[in-house]
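Why do we bother with holo predictions? Because pocket geometry can differ from the apo form. Keep that in mind while you read this record for pyridoxal-5'-phosphate.
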Amino acid sequence: MIPILLTIGGSDSSGGAGIQADIKTFASQGAYGTSVITAVTAQNTLGVKDTFKLSPEAVVAQLETLKEDFNIDYVKTGMLCSTEITSIVADQIEDLCVPLVLDPVIEAEAGGTLLDRSAVEVMRKKLIPLARVVTPNIFEAEALSGVKVIDQETAQKAAEKILNFGAQAVIVTGGHLEGTDFLSGDGALFLILGDKVEGGNHGVGCTYSAALATFLARDYPIKEAAFAAKDVATTSISRSYFVGKGASPVNQMGKALEDADRFQVLTEVDRAVNLLMSEPSFGLLVPEVGSNVGMAIEGAKDYLDVAAVQGRLVKSGRKAHQSGCVRFGSSKHVARIILAAMSFDPRERAAMNIRFSRSILDVCEDLNLKLASFNRKHEPSRAKTMSWGTSKAIAEAGFFPEAIWDEGGMGKEPMIRLLGSSPAQVVNRAMIIAEKLGESDGNL
Ligand code: PLP
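The structure, written out:
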């Protein structure tokens, strides 16, 4: 059964934070989202221009109507605006008797008050004791606890104070520190390690707490939910929408899109490799070190974002044998080629390496492939050959090549790398080359 979540918070007209962020996050992580709006903000990516509080009756009416119809599994609160609404929401949640993720929203990242200072005391007294988890950032943790949070030690101190107000657990999010979150509660302290991620920041707190509520509603233990929510938040930042003139809204669909992209990439590489294995002359193109086919996800950052064949494709007579299955992180070599190529053209996400010989190069020329090359003699001592060579060949060619070759060096096998936008494209080229070579009966 799909979990039903309820977010109680403010509408963000810019679409990046608030109720809009929560509903997108719930949906992207497999939950059904309902909402109770406490206030309508007139805001864009530059900040909150105006806030229109809803009346207590309007808030209660929304809640009562939802209660009549839905079995709500989890509640998440965000912008509660005023003392009165904070108090009413606390009463309603107590009555509802459903676990709560409390995001103690006080101010917007780009500027603008989202909770009257006088409401903080009500939040401490009435709402925090109802919370399964409270998710402050360092500023919110300070506002709630009075402890200035500057590092792990102070985050822990602040968390302990908030626990003493009656919450079962507290996660002080580390986005304004080094990126690591601090989970305290259930008798333990965990660090949810993370790095500072490049991208937008509008809506990240809402996205994190909505994801956390979703995973808790899906019965994840709190530590696992915290890791999973961090992953959703991190990917939402790295895939932010660069729209508007101010703080870029994070992309709540980022994780779901990345997961879909990963699946697509695995499928494409797998299909292309299967096709290649059916080519009767492909063995003629396999170098001593083996061949591999790879493809990267959109916006790939390292080799873990590139899928290739585990253990490579090895020569087996005139054909080739696939050593393992297609996985992400299987080939640092192919990954370096692709990542370097993508730095010139992000659409060029696929590559494979084949054997170098004069006759193979001749076939490539006969096929009018756009060729570029590099010479290992010029390689700086600490360089990674694939990254350096690929970048050098493309930069010197002045165009994006379909194949890059080099004649090898001391103990280094010469090689040709086929580049393209999909594994099907590069494998197709390799099959044509193999076929042509096979016609001349492997005349090497
Ligand atoms: N607007 C609303 C309605 C919110 O609920 C929030 C945060 O919870 C924000 C704006 C602020 O978003 P941010 O500080 O991430 O930009």
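Residues 257-439 form a domain with the L-fuculose-1-phosphate Aldolase fold (CATH 3.40.225.10).
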